Amino acid sequence: MLEIVIPEIKEARSNNKKKNFWSHVTSNDYMTWINGYEKFSNKNKKILFDDLSILLSSGVNLVAALDLVLNSFKGKKEKTLIQSFIIDLTNGKSFFEVLQNSNKFSPYEFYSIKIGEETGKLPIILIELSKYISQRIEQRRKVVGAFSYPVVILLTAIIAVA
What we know:
Blueprint: H1 6-18, H2 27-36, H3 42-57, H4 62-69, H5 76-90, H6 95-102, H7 107-119, H8 122-161
């Protein structure tokens, strides 16, 4: 005979309601979100995505493309990062896993790469990511400009009064 135990159902429902949406996020994840993605600048991400999209569209494989892109970067940190990508890809990891494990790319960026890999449309996804990064750079420039103007006016007023 089938019996329903009401207290257990009520307890299960109350446990589900107590869970916070952000409960799965750890402080380490949060700090990575705040600090980690900007270590590889948006400008460098745009260069990487632009160059890779062109090279992959022309038929160059991903490891060779990254090897060619390596020369586009001047900084030692950027070159080391790209070299680690090449090593990880050579060891059998997917490009998505490489970007995710680097902690330099946002979830939007590496999940977009995952979709591109799975659908075979990686060059198109890279072009779209490059456009997205360009918009972020432009938006940040506008926000800085919008906040700097009132500060300049305020400082000018203080200097004029003094």
